[in-house]
Amino acid sequence: MAKQILRDDQWKKIAGLLPGRTETVGVTAQDNRLFIEGVLWVARTGAHWRELPDRYGHWNSVFQRYNRWSNTGVWERLFQTLSDDPDFEYVMIDSIIVRVHQHSAGAKGGSRRTRQLATAQAV
């Protein structure tokens, strides 16, 4: 496997907070660490989910699980737990890091008819 993003001490801090542990009710997760590494890979690279390398699993399965964890507040708990770790600050994402999609960068918006109506009203 490629270099891991999470160190072992960081993993130990959050492992007990994750759903899918053997001692919890419900389905036991295959590999929470690999899943989190995949999500962090997407966050770190800014890539689309479909570009997720196969070593992390099928992109749609990873995305669906990410979405479930987002809706139940799991990510918020994890990041609050790791927020005091100075080596983990690169995962904190803001508008400086995230790239704008090429179609949202300065193109004229609206349909052709809307632009025609706006031009006609301006005259």
Provide structural commentary.
The protein is mainly alpha-helical. It has one domain (about 10-120). The protein contains five helices and no strands. The model has no long low-confidence stretch (mean pLDDT about 75).
SSE blueprint and pairings:
Elements (H helix, E strand, L loop, with lengths): L7 H7 L17 H14 L13 H14 L1 H9 L29 H11 L1
Task: Offer a concise description of the structure.
It contains 5 helices and no strands. With 123 residues, the protein is mainly α. The protein has one domain (8-122).
Q: What separation lies between the terminal Cα atoms?
A: 63 Å
Q: What fraction of the residues are assigned to beta strands by DSSP?
A: under 5%
The whole-number mean of residue pLDDT values reads 74
Unreliable residue runs:
none
**Oligomeric form:** single chain
Helix content: 40-55%
Number of strands: 0
- Tell the overall outline: globular
- Rounded to an integer, what's the Rg over CA atoms? 20 Å
